[in-house]
Write a structure and sequence with these properties.
Strand order of the largest sheet of chain A: 11-10-9-12-13
Distance between the termini of chain A: 46 Å
Shape of chain A: globular
Number of helices of chain A: 22
Structural class of chain B: alpha/beta
CATH topology of the largest domain in chain A: Rossmann fold
Number of domains of chain B: 3
CATH architecture of the largest domain in chain B: 3-Layer(aba) Sandwich
Oligomer: heterodimer
Shape of chain B: globular
Strand content of chain A: 5-15%
CATH class of the largest domain in chain A: Alpha Beta
CATH superfamily of the largest domain in chain B: Nitrogenase molybdenum iron protein domain
Number of strands of chain B: 14
Number of strands of chain A: 15
C-alpha cells in the first residue's frame, strides 16, 4: 500500500483506452464497475475530443457480483459489436474486474464474433498507464500485422502517437512533413489515425520511426523481430537530436535528398545577444524518461542552461535515464511520488523547472517558474495552435516555451538595480505575465473570482505556507541584517543565494550568517 | 394539463451507466470539513479519478489521498491491515491539523472485503481522542456520484452525542456562504437552535435525539435520512430550497414544525424573495419555452426540473435520475406538471438515441458526454458544476437559473461559428 496525493500515470486500462481512442474502426469493451466511465472525460474534456471514446463499459454494481458478471460482459460485448460494427474488438478488465476474474478475453473469444478480438492482460496492481498503451499497441500488432511484401518506394511507419499524449498530434504532423521532405512516405501512422485494417498493412513499410518509447517500444521490437523492420532510436526533440534523427533515417532509407533547415530559428534565437541572460540558469527536469532525456540535452547544449537535477516517474526508463544523469554529473530521481519530487526540487533550488502538470504546482508553491515538457498535462497543454515538440518547429517551440516563464534579461537587471520600486518589484513577477505573481499570491483572490465567474471548477482556497526556509543545519543561524539583505535579492535567484550561503557557512564552519557571509559566498560561487 | 408526476410510470433501463462513483463527493466534502482528511483505500484508478474529476489537479496538497493497493496487499488480509495502519500513522504525523479521518472504501477494497469499519475502530483507539476515524464506502459498485456524500454523512450519525432538546438539524454540505444565509433566514423567522451536518469543524459536531427534527438541503441523502430516523430524529418533508418557490416552501415547512405561521415567513422573506424572483426573471427570458433533457447524474435532476419548469418556463422532455427516492422526491414530483418521461438508471446508448431524436435545446449531462453532444450541435450543461457552485436559497436562485441560461446564450452568440453549422442551425 502506498499513499498517493497525485499520480503521474493512470491505471493500465487508461493506457489501452488511449490507444483505442486514437484509432478508428476499433472498439473496446472494458469490464469495469460503475464509475470507471470517468475515464471518458480525460478525452472529451481534457483533450477536447468531439466524440466519445470508442469504449463500452459493463458498469457492474454490487448486486451483480453475486449474480452473473460474466453474462453482463458478454451482453455488453454483443451490444457494442452490433451498435458500432468495428473492424476489431479489444477487450480488457479494469482493476476491480481483474479481482473478480471473469476472463473477458476468454469470454469474447467464445462468442464467435466475425472480427478479430484482441484480449489484453493488464495487471492493474503492478503496472500503469504507459504500460497499458505499450501493451495494447503490441497486442494489436501481434494480432493484426503480418509479414508481407515491402512497398516499392521506401516507406516507413510512424508509431507511438496516442490520444491524450503530450503534443502527439503535432509531433506526428511535423515528423510526417520532415520525412516527406526526405522523400519518404508514411505507410501507416499508428495508433493515432489508424484503423485495424491499417495495422494489417504495417508489414509493407521498410522501417519504423518510433516517436515515443513509452507507448510503442514493445511494438517496435516485435516488428523488428517478426516483420524485419529496423526502427529509429533517436527521439527528434531539439535541433541536435533532429539532425541526428535525419542522419539515422538516411542510413535506414538511403535518402540523400537535402533538408532545408532555414525554418528552424531556435539556434539563432539562442545565439542572439538577448539570450545571454539564459547562460547557466539552473534547471530541474522531471517527466517521462524520453522527454526528460531529450530536454536535458537541449537545456545544456542548445539553451546554455545548467541542469541541476533530473528524474522520471516511469521506472521502465530508469536505466537509460540514470546513464544520462551520470553523464551530467547528477544522480537521477526515479519516483512516482509527487512529494518526493517536490522535496528534491526544493533541495536543488533551481531557477526554473521543466516538468509536468505536477511540477507546475510545485513551481507555483515554491515560487519557481515552470515550463511543461511532458505528460501528464492538463487542458491548457492541448493548444488549438500547432505546437509540436519534435523536429524543426518543435525546436522553435521549445525555445519559446522555456523562455516564457522567465524574467526577461533587461528586466532582470532592472530588478537588481531598483529593488524597492513600489510597482516594479520582484513580488510582482515577470512583467510580461499579466496576473502572475510567484508566492503569497496577491492575485489569488482575483483568480478565484474569475474562476467562479467563468463557471470553471473551483480553485483551491488555501495553499500551504510557502516553504521559504528549508531546514538549516542545527548550528547555523541567519542574523537579521543578513536575512534582510537576502530579501533584497530578486526572487528568481534568492533560493540559490540562500542555499549557496548556507553551504558556504557549513564548509567554513561559520555559525552566524552575516551580510559579509552572504557576499563572501557570492564571491566564492561566482561564475 | 393534469398536475403532478408522482404517479407517472418510471422508465427503467439497464445498460452502461455513464456516471461518477461516490468517491467524487470527496472533492467538495474535503473543502467543507476543514479539519478532515479523506483517505481512499483503493487502486490507482481511484486516485486518477479524483484528480481528473477535480478538473484541476489542485495546487498544493489537498486533504485527500489514496492508499493504493498493490499486488502484495491482495495476497493476504493481515498485511493489508498492517499496511493501512502504517500509512495512516505516517499521514497523521505529517498532518497534525487533522481531527477527523475518513477511511473511504472503493470497488477493489469492497471486492477483497477489506473491513474498513474494523480498521476505523482500531485506528480510533490508536489515534483518539485527538483524531476520530470513521469509514464509508464511495465505491462505484455501491454508490453513484452524490451518494458518496450521503454515505459520508450517514457514517457520522451513529457517533453523534445524544440530546433531549428540540433542535433543527440542517443536513447537506452547503458552501459556507449559503449555509450562513440559511441560518440567518431561519433565525429571523424564529427557528432556533439550528445545527448543521456536516459541521465545518469537529468541535461544532451536532448532537441529536428523539426531539430533533431535520431538514435536508440536498435531495440525495437517502441513507443519511434513514440513519437519522434510526436515531429518533424526524424528517420535515418539503421541496428542496432551489429557486424562490422551493426556498419559500422549504422555509414554511420548517417554520410550521416550530409553530411559526406562513405569514411570518412571508414577512421575513419578502425582500430576498423579491430579489430572487427578479434575478430569475432575467435568466428566464433566455430559458422560457426551451426544451431540456436531464441525463441521470447528481440526483438533483428532479428538484431542478421542478425549478426550471415552474419558475423559468422551460419544458422538460426527460428527467433522468440515478435513483428515485419517492420519500424524498415525492413533494417535488407533485409540483412538476405531467408530461416528461421520468427515468431511473441508464442505458447510455439508448438514452443518447432519445436525446438525438428529441434534439432538446439543452441537455444536462456528465463531463464525458458534454463535448460529444456539443459537437452534434446540442447545447449542454455539465452536471458536476451544479454540485460545485452555490445554488441554494434565495440569493443564489438567479445564479442557478443563469447556469442553464449561459450555454444557451453562448450557443446563440456563436451559432454561425459552430464547426457543424448545418446541424447546429436546426
Amino acid at each position: 500500500m502506498k499513499l498517493a496525493v497525485w499520480t503521474y500515470e493512470g491505471p493500465p486500462h487508461v493506457g489501452a483506452m488511449r490507444v483505442a481512442t486514437a484509432m478508428h474502426g476499433l472498439h473496446m469493451v472494458l469490464h469495469a464497475p460503475q464509475g470507471d466511465t470517468y475515464a471518458d472525460l480525460l478525452f472529451t474534456m481534457i483533450e477536447r475530443r468531439n466524440h466519445r471514446p470508442p469504449v463500452s463499459y459493463t458498469t457492474f454494481q454490487a448486486r451483480d457480483l453475486g449474480a452473473d458478471t460474466s453474462g453482463l460482459f458478454t451482453s455488453a460485448c454483443r451490444d457494442a459489436f452490433d451498435r458500432f460494427q468495428p473492424q476489431a474488438l479489444m477487450v480488457a478488465a479494469s482493476c476491480t474486474a481483474e479481482l473478480i476474474q471473469d476472463d473477458p478475453g476468454g469470454l469474447a473469444e467464445t462468442m464467435g464474433l466475425s472480427v478479430p478480438v484482441i484480449a489484453l492482460e493488464l495487471p492493474s496492481y503492478q503496472r500503469k498507464e504507459n504500460f497499458g498503451c505499450d501493451e495494447a499497441f503490441l497486442q494489436l500488432c501481434r494480432t493484426l500485422a503480418k509479414p508481407m511484401a515491402r512497398t516499392e518506394r521506401v516507406t516507413c511507419n510512424i508509431i507511438g502517437p496516442t490520444a491524450l499524449g503530450f503534443r502527439h498530434r503535432d509531433d506526428l504532423a511535423e515528423i510526417t512533413a520532415l520525412l516527406s521532405e526526405m522523400g519518404i512516405e508514411v505507410n501507416v501512422a499508428a495508433p493515432m489515425g489508424a484503423s485495424p485494417a491499417d495495422i494489417t498493412r504495417m508489414g509493407a513499410a521498410h522501417f519504423n520511426v518510433l516517436l515515443y518509447p513509452e507507448t510503442a517500444e514493445s511494438a517496435a521490437r516485435w516488428c523488428e523481430k517478426e516483420l524485419g523492420q529496423p526502427f529509429t532510436k533517436t527521439i527528434p526533440i531539439g535541433a541536435n537530436a533532429t539532425r541526428a534523427f535525419i542522419e539515422e533515417v538516411r542510413v535506414l532509407s538511403g535518402s540523400t535528398i537535402p533538408v532545408d533547415e532555414t525554418r528552424m530559428r531556435q539556434p539563432w534565437w539562442a545565439a542572439s545577444v538577448d539570450s545571454t541572460y539564459l547562460t547557466g540558469k539552473r534547471v530541474f527536469l522531471f517527466g517521462d524518461g524520453t522527454h526528460v532525456m531529450a530536454a536535458a540535452r537541449v537545456a545544456r547544449d542548445e539553451m546554455g542552461f545548467e541542469v541541476c537535477g533530473m528524474g522520471c516517474y516511469n521506472r521502465e526508463q530508469a536505466r537509460p535515464l540514470r546513464a544520462v544523469a551520470k553523464e551530467f554529473g547528477l544522480e537521477a530521481l526515479i519516483t512516482d511520488d509527487y512529494l518526493e519530487v517536490e522535496a528534491a526540487i526544493e533541495e536543488a533550488a533551481p531557477e526554473m523547472i521543466l516538468g509536468t502538470q505536477m511540477e507546475r504546482h510545485i513551481g507555483k508553491r515554491l515560487g519557481i517558474p515552470c515550463a511543461v515538457i511532458s505528460a501528464p498535462v492538463h487542458v491548457q497543454d492541448f493548444p488549438a495552435r500547432y505546437s509540436p515538440q519534435m523536429g524543426f518547429e518543435g525546436a522553435n517551440v521549445l525555445f519559446d516555451t522555456w523562455v516564457h516563464p522567465l524574467v526577461m534579461g533587461l528586466e532582470e537587471h532592472l530588478l537588481h538595480m531598483f529593488r524597492d520600486d513600489f510597482e516594479f518589484h520582484d513580488d510582482a513577477g515577470p512583467s510580461h505575465h499579466g496576473g502572475h505573481a510567484p508566492r503569497n499570491d496577491p492575485g489569488a483572490a482575483a483568480a478565484h473570482a474569475a474562476a467562479d465567474e467563468g463557471g470553471s471548477m473551483p480553485l483551491p482556497s488555501a495553499p500551504l505556507a510557502p516553504l521559504d526556509a528549508p531546514a538549516l543545519p542545527d548550528n547555523i543561524i541567519w542574523l537579521t541584517c543578513a536575512e534582510r539583505e537576502l530579501k533584497k535579492i530578486p526572487f528568481f535567484v534568492r533560493g540559490k543565494a540562500r542555499r549557496n550561503t548556507e553551504k558556504f557557512a557549513v564548509e567554513k564552519g561559520i555559525s552566524e550568517i552575516t551580510v559579509d557571509t552572504l557576499y563572501e559566498a557570492k564571491a566564492h560561487y561566482a561564475r | 394539463m393534469t398536475t403532478g408526476c408522482r404517479d407517472t410510470p418510471v422508465l427503467k433501463q439497464r445498460g452502461q451507466r455513464e456516471v461518477f462513483c461516490g468517491l467524487t463527493g470527496i472533492i467538495w466534502l474535503h473543502r467543507k470539513m476543514q479539519d478532515a482528511f479523506f483517505l481512499v483505500v483503493g487502486s490507482r484508478t481511484c486516485a486518477h479519478l479524483l484528480q481528473s474529476a477535480a478538473g484541476v489537479m489542485i495546487f498544493a496538497e489537498p486533504r485527500f489521498g489514496t492508499a493504493i493497493l498493490e499486488e502484495k496487499d491482495l495476497a493476504g488480509m493481515a498485511d493489508a491491515n498492517e499496511e493501512l495502519d502504517r500509512e495512516v500513522a505516517r499521514l497523521l504525523a505529517r498532518r497534525p491539523d487533522i481531527r477527523q479521518l475518513f477511511l473511504v472504501g472503493s470497488c477493489p477494497s469492497e471486492v477483497i472485503k477489506l473491513d474498513l469499519a474494523r480498521a476505523a475502530e482500531r485506528l480510533s483507539v490508536a489515534h483518539g481522542p485527538n483524531v476520530r476515524v470513521l469509514n464509508f464506502s464511495g465505491s462505484g459498485i455501491e454508490t453513484t456520484f452524490t451518494q458518496g456524500e450521503d454515505a459520508c454523512l450517514a457514517s457520522m450519525v451513529p457517533a453523534l452525542a445524544e440530546t433531549p432538546a428540540k433542535e433543527l438539524l440542517l443536513v447537506g454540505a452547503l458552501p459556507d456562504v449559503v449555509e450562513d444565509q440559511a441560518l440567518d433566514l431561519l433565525a429571523q423567522i424564529g427557528v432556533t437552535p439550528v445545527r448543521c451536518l456536516p459541521s465545518r469543524r469537529v468541535q461544532d459536531t451536532p448532537v441529536i435525539g428523539p426531539n430533533t427534527v431535520f431538514a435536508l438541503t440536498q435531495p440525495f441523502l437517502g441513507d443519511t435520512h434513514a440513519a437519522l430516523t434510526r436515531r429518533g430524529a424526524r424528517h420535515i418533508a418539503a421541496p428542496f430550497p432551489f429557486g424562490a418557490e422551493g426556498t419559500t416552501l422549504w422555509l414554511k415547512s420548517v417554520a410550521a414544525e416550530f409553530g411559526i405561521s406562513p405569514e411570518k415567513v412571508d414577512q421575513v422573506v419578502a425582500a430576498p424573495r423579491a430579489r430572487a424572483e427578479k434575478a430569475i426573471a432575467a435568466a428566464a427570458t433566455t430559458l422560457r419555452g426551451k426544451r431540456i433533457f436531464f441525463m441521470p447524474d447528481s440526483q438533483l435532476e428532479i428538484p431542478l426540473a421542478r425549478f426550471l419548469t415552474r419558475e423559468c418556463g422551460m419544458q422538460a422532455i426527460e428527467i433522468g435520475t440515478p435513483y428515485l427516492h419517492t420519500d424524498l422526491h415525492g413533494p417535488e414530483l407533485d409540483l412538476i406538471a405531467s408530461g416528461p418521461v421520468i427515468s431511473e438508471g441508464q442505458d447510455v446508448d439508448l438514452q443518447l438515441d432519445r436525446v438525438r431524436a428529441a434534439r432538446p435545446d439543452l441537455t444536462v449531462c456528465g463531463l464525458g458526454l458534454a463535448n460529444p453532444l456539443e459537437a452534434e450541435g446540442l447545447a449542454t450543461k455539465w452536471a458536476i458544476e451544479l454540485v460545485f457552485t452555490p445554488v441554494h436559497f434565495y440569493e443564489q436562485a438567479g445564479d442557478l437559473a443563469s447556469l442553464f441560461a449561459r450555454p444557451l446564450r453562448r450557443h446563440a452568440a456563436l451559432r454561425r461559428q459552430h464547426p457543424n453549422r448545418l446541424e447546429a442551425a436546426e
